[in-house]
Design brief:
7 helices; 167 residues; 0% strand; Helix Hairpins; binds magnesium ion; disordered N terminus; 2 domains
């Protein structure tokens, strides 16, 4: 059974990924194993060959962990969960700093040297991306399926407030 974040993406056939020769262990349970760096490119290529705009938590994880290991060689001290969550909060802080500059412009409290609004909005996207990337690394530390966690939490909140939206 092929499962990606608990679902087969819309329009995909069950054997689509198998035809792309993605490692069967990864397909069956992409969050239970640490993807090997040599497999990462192939896994992401398989996802994107089916839909070039599709980005899943599974495909992010496939390349995020092997890339991260480049900054953390085996001889270095391993990061603790506190290090990873600190890095995540650091990126959230960088996002807040960009928004601070946006608010300066919106309220007329200009600071000399602040970038133009267009550049600041671009940086919001970049910092949000950093937050998501580190959130995935925190999730990886605890072997959490981030997509499943988002789905569960989203649906719990919808149910709690009586909203119909579900993932
Ligand atoms: Mg950043």
């Amino acid at each position: 059974m092929i499962v990606l974040n608990g679902k087969v993406p819309l329009g995909w056939r069950l054997d689509d990924l198998a035809e792309q020769k993605v490692g069967i262990d990864f397909i069956n349970n992409p969050f239970a194993i640490v993807p090997k760096r040599e497999d990462a490119e192939r896994i992401v290529a398989a996802f994107t060959s089916l839909d070039p705009h599709f980005l899943s938590f599974a495909s992010l994880r496939a390349v995020n962990v092997p890339r991260c290991e480049r900054w953390h060689p085996p001889e270095s001290l391993p990061w603790t969960c506190a290090d990873w969550s600190n890095a995540l909060c650091g990126e959230a802080g960088e996002l807040a700093n960009v928004v601070k500059k946006i608010r300066r412009q919106q309220t007329g409290a200009l600071n000399e040297g602040d970038p133009a609004m267009e550049e600041l909005v671009k940086r919001v996207g970049e910092e949000l991306a950093d937050v998501v990337i580190y959130a995935d690394l925190v999730a990886h530390y605890f072997r959490i399926d981030l997509g499943a966690a988002v789905r569960t939490k989203f649906n719990e909140v919808s149910k709690k407030y009586g909203f119909p939206e579900r993932l």
